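Example record used in the benchmark description.
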Amino acid sequence: MNKIINVKSLLPLALLLIGSQAPILAQEQTEEDRISYYEERGREDAIYEQNLTTKEEADEADFWEDQEAYEKELKARDRKAHRAYMKGKRDAYKEHYAYCDHHCHHGSHYYSHATFYYHGYYRSYDRPSRTRVNTGIRIGTPSVRIGL
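Model output (structure tokens):
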């Protein structure tokens, strides 16, 4: 009972199986592309912010307000994209912090926003952190009762 299977008859089945997997693979690749796009966009925005020079302080304040509004809108629209965008910004700020010293001249608003993106910009190294240690030791006095 040897049955010979015709390869031509299996071709539609094979195409059906491969075709059903293609949208899933395309969707995964599209998701990865979208995430990498927002991460790169965050990196580019951070570099622009680090090189930003304005003549008026009001222009700088307007820029940062617009930037905050964009990030808030992105977070409301797509949390994964916002997370990738912030990761790109955080990485770029971290790289910049490694060589940014007194030779960098950033605007007055820059450092307040940079602390949000990268905690290394906190200038509180000279202050010790406040910690509390709770010990569970109690010293009790004996109670004396006198009854009449």
